[in-house]
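Protein modeling request. Please complete all fields; requests missing the sequence field cannot be processed.
Requester role: graduate student
Desired output: 3D structure, token encoding
Chains: 1
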Amino acid sequence: MKLSIVIPVYNEKKTIEEILRRVIAVRLPKVEKEIIIIDDKSTDGTKEILKKIKKKHPRFKIVFRFWNGGKGATVRTGLKYVTGDYIIIQDADLEYNPQDISPGCLGPFLKEEQE
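Delivered output (115 residues):
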């Protein structure tokens, strides 16, 4: 099973590295994680941080939008890059804890995959 985690980002220089650490730390046995980060034309230095992250984690899909379109447009852009069987949207502002993406949460889907 492959899980695509789409992370819309706008002016998150204070939280982007922490949210990515937390997403990476989530252990999901038998699940391949695809991490897709979409920057919505950040103006606070987030873009520069993401460029450094891209060098460190070349498997991440990092896309820079050419104009600010809001969260909905950013999520829709991210969905174009998804190749997983299932999708989760993870906000970059730490409002939602990535630990909620747990084997328990995915249990029904994992069971479905095994059948």
